[in-house]
Amino acid sequence: MSEILALITHFEHLKIQLEAIKSETNSFADKNCIGKGGLGKVYKGELLHYKGHSIVAIKRLDRRFGQGNPELWNEIIMLYQYKHKNIVSLLGFCDKSNEKIIVYEYASNGNLDLYLNSDNLTWIQRLKICIGAARGLAYLHNPGKTTQQRVLHLDIKSSNILLDENWNAKISDSFRPV
Known about the structure:
By secondary structure, this protein is α+β, with helices and mostly antiparallel strands. It has 2 domains: 2-105, 2-Layer Sandwich (Phosphorylase Kinase, domain 1); 112-177, no CATH class. 28% of the residues lie in helices and 28% in strands. A hairpin with a 2-residue loop joins strand 2 and strand 3 (52-61).
């Protein structure tokens, strides 16, 4: 328990109030849900966070699937330590009233899975996305001097490659140190 309190203190600047998150998601209404994953549902909202005010993705961890403090803090620590233009950015979190919530940058073009069988992407865009995802993975596998641990992505797939407004690839979900 003391380890968790130390983490919360270290990441105090990342805390976002539960009331603000509930207000933005209309108390986690299905109409605001933009995705579902193994850890829970993801909602779209607009929040004030430590980098400013923007549209964000809000992942609400689902306790029914055993998601709790270890999963919340593992993801917060990983995303806080490993910053790269091709890895989704952590903007905040909420750990209050049995709610475990992580707030990320919003990728306005959704995930790569939505475009694999469509003609909406040119081959140049597809290549740029592949190179961006590869660069993000290379950074995780060989972080250099910025961190001391390698990280494996345990679930790399098209739905975990997000695309921002400029079609840049952003790897998300399932990071584990080795």
